[in-house]
Amino acid sequence: MGISKNVVPRIPFTVFEYPILPCYNDYAMFVRTKTFANKDGTKRTYLQIVEGVRENGKVRQKVVANLGRIEDAQSGSLDRLIESLAKFSKKRWVQAEAARLMVLEAKEWGTELIFRHLWEKLGLAAIIKNLLDKTEITSPLDEAIYAMVLNRISDPLSKRAVNEWVNEIYRPAFKELELHHFYRALDFLILHKETIELELFEQTKNLFNLELDLAFWDTTSTYFTGNGPEGLAEYGYSK
What is the 3-state secondary structure (H, E, C) of 48-84? Predict the structure, then answer.
């Protein structure tokens, strides 16, 4: 008489327990494996779902279901069972659906998220916007300036390359940017360079509570051109 795969023979075995199922009663259900030794020295392993039950003041394991031999379960039936059970779980089983996910688009966000906070804290967004409001410019030059600075601190590229780079960054406002915006932004910065520098300096002093009485200028490497006073100043680089 043959032995059914769903019936576990009562011969010496090894038990391994894997508590993975949620608790429906007072005791959790879990998966258990039982390994049996054959007369020829080979082994066979069975999967069982068991739960802890209390009887006469003691906790024992009660077999809820026999899942058959492990190699049969691993052929695909176990995955189908897990997927089927996941439909009734209160917690969504993300792993069961992960294989079906497809990445259609991926963009970088972390650097922009952090730097935008610093940009706002330094007052640069407000400084540039106030200057733009005094002009008739309607193009998003403030976003172009921000994009160029963000690129400079993360992945320095040419202005033409930045126009492609912004497509890799998650910031909805960048979708409006075109190549000519970056060049127009540079012209805007040249016209308002001193105003921006002065306001940024004042904002930095207030932000960090700085008291500035003396400023030092690094002259490690200087370069003179044109006609000027003789003596200290000489043509070319001076160290």
Answer: EEEEEEEECCEEEEEEEEEEEEHHHHHHHHHHHHHHH
* Angstrom distance (rounded) from CA 200 to CA 163: 26
Q: What is the pLDDT of residue 237?
A: 65
| Domain spans, the chain | 13-98, 110-212
Amino acid code (one letter) for 153: I
Tokens 């429906």 locate to: 24
Determine the CATH number of domain 13-98. Answer: 3.10.450
> How do 236-238 and 222-224 pair as beta strands?
antiparallel
The pLDDT of residue 62 is: 87
Q: How far apart are CA 131 and CA 142, in angstroms?
A: 10
Q: What pTM, to 2 d.p., does this model score? A: 0.56
Which candidate, 10, 18, 11, 1, places its Cα nearest to that of 70? 18
| Contacts for 149 with CB less than 8 Å, ≥ 6 apart | 119
Tokens encoding 221: 């490497």
Distances (CA, A) of 83 to 80, 89, 93, 215: 5, 10, 8, 69
Report, as ranges of residue numbers, the positions in the chain whose pLDDT lies below 50: 1-15, 17-26
pLDDT recorded at residue 23: 43
Q: Phi/psi at 216 (nearest 5 deg)?
A: -110, 140
Q: Which of 36, 50, 42 is nearest to 8 (CA)?
A: 36
Rounded Cα distance, 160 and 153, in Å? 17
Neighbouring C-alpha atoms within 13 Å toward the C-beta of 145: 23
Closest CA to 114 of 85, 89, 148, 150: 150
